[in-house]
């Protein structure tokens, strides 16, 4: 019995969206769900209590970053990542492949694994499927990701085919190296770029290994949104209905809705927390750059339609002042609001699926947010 199981509750009659529930050793969460990113064992500027208050039941952390700093041994000695960061909800850890390809130079990919330089110290390092599994076993995350290669966009068909086949071999090695499948779920990551037959090959390779869940990787790497949506349309076709589907690195409101419509269950992205730290907020009427001078005497909330702690207690003028003055409290207020906004958006998506009207909800949300504006 896998540590992670999925319950498909219903499918939206108007779209391909699914309402579901994922069960892990640290609790359950409804899907579609947005997962806040806590790269270095913290969702930047938020306490675990605030993440719970916002309504999140699962967060993400990064194997690559925690391996480099503070090192998985310290976290293992602390009793695992949950104990180390005082978070008792679910944790998903990315496997490090993406970070090696996006953060480090001097990369040399070979069958055994990847040689690269530590992006902080410059020291030469080596990461393999077995090492990525050993680190995630030490972290004790509820959902581990297989070690994969996320090729750049665009990539030649020949390169992509070789990469997909190596990622499938690496996935098998991850399964073999998995020490405690009864305690930690392991998701395979589907690659293949924009090539339909490579996505099919990757999906067939990985579903034959019967993972408890599948991520769609290799997207949100600079491709146009219509390419992402087309890849989702044909890739989900080859994934089983009774396992969760996780689209990696996606977190703008429009992509969360469009991904849900295409049958995606789980999403993560640094976007809401990253833009919050430079004073950009997501609101029901579109993006609002609160550091803008026009808000200097605006004593209304960031979003008049939002019930979060920030919007109930603080004004645009005050938050603008804090951000301009480099006051950390300002970053906390914008971060709290942006995460609350996306968690609430996913609640509305789930409600729309229950009412078989996610397509209508998309039109209403896009109109109000301004996505339809030319
Ligand atoms: O194939 C993948 N394998 C393993 N992890 C991933 C993580 C990924 N994250 C993104 N995109 C993140 C894009 N962000 C958007 C906001 O600004 C920072 C980058 N794409 C990703 C693909 C993969």
Shape, per Cα inertia axes: globular
Structural class: alpha/beta
Task: Give the percentage of residues in beta strands.
Answer: 15-25%
Bound molecules: the ligand O=c1[nH]cnc2cc3nc(NCCN4CCOCC4)[nH]c3cc12
Q: Report the span from N to C terminus.
A: 50 Å
For the largest sheet, list the strands in their spatial order.
4-14-13-12-11-10-6-5
Describe it.
The protein is of the alpha/beta class and 374 residues long. 41% of the residues lie in helices and 18% in strands. It is built from 15 helices and 16 strands. An eight-stranded parallel β-sheet has the order 4-14-13-12-11-10-6-5. It is globular. The site of the ligand O=c1[nH]cnc2cc3nc(NCCN4CCOCC4)[nH]c3cc12 has 15 residues, from helix 5.
Which helices and strands, and how do they pair?
Elements: E1 5-11, E2 18-24, E3 27-31, E4 33-35, H1 48-54, E5 58-62, H2 63-68, H3 72-77, H4 81-85, E6 90-94, H5 97-103, E7 108-109, E8 114-117, E9 124-127, H6 129-139, E10 143-145, H7 157-177, E11 185-190, H8 196-207, E12 213-216, H9 225-235, E13 245-247, H10 253-261, E14 266-268, H11 271-276, E15 280-283, E16 286-289, H12 309-313, H13 316-324, H14 328-354, H15 358-369
Parallel strand pairs: 4-14, 5-6, 6-10, 10-11, 11-12, 12-13, 13-14
Antiparallel strand pairs: 1-2, 2-3, 7-8, 8-9, 15-16
Helix pairs in contact: 6-7, 7-8, 10-14, 10-15, 13-14, 14-15
């Amino acid at each position: 019995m896998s540590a992670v199981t999925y319950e498909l509750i219903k499918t939206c009659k108007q779209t391909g969206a699914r309402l579901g529930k994922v069960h892990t050793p640290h609790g359950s969460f409804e899907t579609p769900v947005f997962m806040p990113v806590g790269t270095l064992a913290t969702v930047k500027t938020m306490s675990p209590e605030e993440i719970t208050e916002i309504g999140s039941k699962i967060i993400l952390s990064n194997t690559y970053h925690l391996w480099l700093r503070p090192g998985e041994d310290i976290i293992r000695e602390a009793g695992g990542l949950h104990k180390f960061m005082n978070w008792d909800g679910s944790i998903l850890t990315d496997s490090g492949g993406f970070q090696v390809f996006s953060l480090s130079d001097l990369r040399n990919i070979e069958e055994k694994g990847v040689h690269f330089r530590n992006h902080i110290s410059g020291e030469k390092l080596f990461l393999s499927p077995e090492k990525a599994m050993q680190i995630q076993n030490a972290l004790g995350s509820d959902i581990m990701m297989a070690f994969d290669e996320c090729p750049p966009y665009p990539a030649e068909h020949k390169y992509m085919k070789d990469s997909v086949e190596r990622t499938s071999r690496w996935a098998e090695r991850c399964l073999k190296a998995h020490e405690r499948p009864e305690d930690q779920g392991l998701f395979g990551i589907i690659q293949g770029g924009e090539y339909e037959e490579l996505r099919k090959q990757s999906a067939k390779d990985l579903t034959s290994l019967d993972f408890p869940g599948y991520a769609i990787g290799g997207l949100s790497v600079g491709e146009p949104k219509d390419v992402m949506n087309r890849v989702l349309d044909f890739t989900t076709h080859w994934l089983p209905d009774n396992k969760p589907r996780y689209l990696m690195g996606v977190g703008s409101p429009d992509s969360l809705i469009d991904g849900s419509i295409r049958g995606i269950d789980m999403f993560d992205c640094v976007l809401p927390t990253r833009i919050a730290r430079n004073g950009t907020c997501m609101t029901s009427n579109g993006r609002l750059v609160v550091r803008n001078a026009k808000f200097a005497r605006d004593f209304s909330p960031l979003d008049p339609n939002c019930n979060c702690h920030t919007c109930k207690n603080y004004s645009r003028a005050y938050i603008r002042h804090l951000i301009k003055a480099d006051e950390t409290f300002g970053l906390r207020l914008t971060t709290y609001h942006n995460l609350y906004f996306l968690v609430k958006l996913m609640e509305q998506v789930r409600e729309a699926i229950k009412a078989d009207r996610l397509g209508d909800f998309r039109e209403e949300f896009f109109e109000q947010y301004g996505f339809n504006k030319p």
